[in-house]
Write a structure and sequence with these properties.
Blueprint (H helix, E strand, L loop, with lengths): L2 H18 L9 H13 L1 H19 L4 H10 L13 H4 L6 H47 L1
Helix pairs in contact: 1-3, 1-6, 2-6, 3-6
Length: 147
């Protein structure tokens, strides 16, 4: 389950350009945007691209040198920092994460399919949310008028 937050972050990173362009284009109904997002999340080719990118990203993170961070902590705390090899990388400190890039790559398409289904559910619930918002608006106005 640890891979899910990473998967969600990867999907958000890939889906963000759709919303980043919203200011440049006419506003489309939320249902259309949710349908587009659901289709994109459910697209096997997009899922494969996301899985490869996530695998590359996490692999790069595992190769990140942590020695300089440990040294900075040591200097900032007057020598009370962690005793870490100056050449250490994240993978050296977390050997159990060695297979994380592959596990994430395998689980990301499953997570994206689930997010696609949830997005469809949100799209289908929009009319109910609008009705609820209208009822709440009316109730607030009635309460305000009753004072």
């Amino acid at each position: 389950m640890r891979a899910f937050p990473l998967a969600a972050a990867a999907v958000i990173a890939f889906a963000s350009p759709v919303y980043a362009q919203a200011d440049e284009q006419p506003v489309e109904p939320p249902e259309a945007a949710l349908s587009e997002l659901s289709d994109r999340l459910g697209d096997p080719q997009f899922q494969d691209q996301a899985a490869v990118m996530a695998q590359v990203f996490v692999s790069a993170m595992l190769d990140l040198e942590v020695g300089p961070f440990a040294d900075a902590i040591d200097r900032a705390t007057g020598g009370a920092g962690p005793d870490i090899d100056p050449d250490a990388r994240v993978r050296d400190l977390a050997p159990e994460a060695e297979d994380l890039p592959e596990r994430l790559s395998e689980s990301l398409p499953v997570a994206m399919n689930a997010m696609s289904a949830m997005t469809e559910g949100m799209r289908d619930m929009l009319p109910a949310f609008r009705d609820m918002a209208e009822r709440m608006r009316e109730a607030i106005e009635e309460a305000r008028d009753a004072r």
